[in-house]
Specification:
single chain; 285 residues; 15-stranded antiparallel β-sheet
Length: 285
């Protein structure tokens, strides 16, 4: 149970799986998003995390991500995403989780500048402080645990991102330019490491999102990192809205014990009307 709740409320894990780098010519940019991004300042998304194992089917936590004003750096505007994940109070009795992630990136290039991770999961705590070098893409990283602090320099490149910047950067991608069934690399940094996994575009699908209705989506599969929760042999599936918002609507993945699902439950401040890709209306009219 500890591993389950640690997974479902650690929002960064699935963010890393639904995201791929697109700036710096890593992947093709959607022609309609060259000037206007798929997102804008003030956007706010909320997700509910659901767990399934044998006869157990229950919501165990939630995650929120908001895009705020990040000020300026060298005359360039910054945006600041803020993500927060939490178990519901009932599950706090078993394993309390309060995770916060924030970063800053250039609005024009969607390249990272700063990243902070503050994780409290039961008795486990960890903090990340990352600072990107604009010229070399190297990452000055400080990782703080109860056992002490590790300072290191990670050799990033033009397609290495923090988890939150990766999430927004991916939404500008031209998915139509991707070949179906082909594994595409994903590079992100967390703690003292840079991880290289992959994602694969499967195609379009009409998908029901519990509580919201049926939407036109683009379906992806993603490799996940082996650990306490994942075996490393299975894949996560993600359904992204088939419009210019490119909002993740639903994801599901088998884990070591059972399966976990995440679904969009509420939103505000989207750049484009999400209802435009709805097929069957349900709660939202």
């Amino acid at each position: 149970m500890k591993a389950l709740i640690r997974y479902v409320t650690a929002f960064s894990i699935w963010l890393s799986c639904v995201s791929v780098p697109v700036s710096g010519q890593c992947f093709p940019l959607h022609p309609d998003l060259a000037e206007e991004h798929a997102f804008r300042q003030g956007e706010r998304l909320r997700y509910i995390i659901h767990y399934k194992w044998l006869g157990i089917r229950t919501d165990v936590g939630y995650a929120e991500v908001a895009l705020l004003d990040g000020g300026e750096r060298d005359g360039r505007k910054l945006l600041q995403p803020l993500a927060y994940g939490s178990t519901y109070k009932f599950w706090d009795v078993f394993f309390k989780v309060r995770d916060t992630y924030t970063s800053k990136f250039y609005e024009d290039s969607v390249r990272p500048v700063y990243f902070h991770r503050d994780v409290h999961e039961g008795k486990y705590t960890v903090q990340n402080f990352y600072y990107w070098d604009d010229n070399t893409c190297a990452i000055d990283a400080s990782v703080i645990r109860q056992s002490g602090t590790v300072d290191t320099l990670l050799p990033g490149h033009g397609c290495t991102f923090d988890l939150l910047t990766l999430f927004y950067n991916a939404r500008n991608m031209d998915f139509e330019a991707l070949e179906r069934g082909v594994n595409n690399p994903v590079s992100f940094a967390i703690d003292e490491e840079i991880f290289d996994i992959y994602f694969r575009y499967i195609g379009r699908e009409e998908k029901r999102v519990p509580g919201l209705g049926v939407y036109r989506t683009m379906k992806f599969a993603a490799k996940v990192v082996a650990g306490e929760v994942f075996t490393g042999e299975q894949e996560m599936y993600i359904w992204v809205s088939d419009d210019l918002n490119r909002v993740p609507l639903l994801f599901e993945s088998p884990i070591i014990v059972g399966s976990v699902f995440g679904r969009l439950s509420d939103w505000e401040g989207l750049e484009y009307p999400l209802e435009d890709c709805k097929v069957i209306k349900n709660k939202r009219q």
